[in-house]
Design a protein that fits this description.
114 residues, alpha+beta, four-stranded mixed beta sheet, two-stranded antiparallel sheet
Length: 114
């Protein structure tokens, strides 16, 4: 990747889009290289935020989810909701800081509330 053209925030030419803009339009880069970058300035001497731009005319449609991908995603989400201590579905994603559901992490609080 050589020197890329750099455009200021909100001043990129038409026909170029960021990854998020492509995804919102139902597209993906499809293997094309980055053609430019967008810089958004920040305060207090911090470096600018950078977003890479891709050509919209070379973008391809997003591949649809297959039944196997949906099943794998459901299993992964179920694993994130299952408490490793009591093996119950907590109904929410287990916080990484606790490593277990709140019932197992704070049993004294639950006993006092009852």
């Amino acid at each position: 990747m050589g020197a890329l053209p750099v455009y200021p925030w909100r001043l990129a030419p038409g026909g170029l889009a960021t990854l998020r803009q492509l995804r919102a339009a139902g597209l993906r880069p499809g293997g094309q290289d980055v053609v430019a970058q967008l810089e958004r300035p920040r305060r207090k001497g911090r470096p600018p935020l950078i977003a890479y731009l891709y050509r919209v005319d070379q973008a391809r449609p997003v591949r649809p989810m297959t039944p196997a991908k949906w099943a794998a995603l459901e299993r992964a989400n179920a694993a994130r909701r299952t408490c490793p201590a009591c093996r119950r579905d907590a109904g929410y994603v287990i916080p990484a800081a606790l490593g277990m559901c709140t019932l197992c992490a704070f049993p004294d609080d639950q006993a006092a509330a009852a």
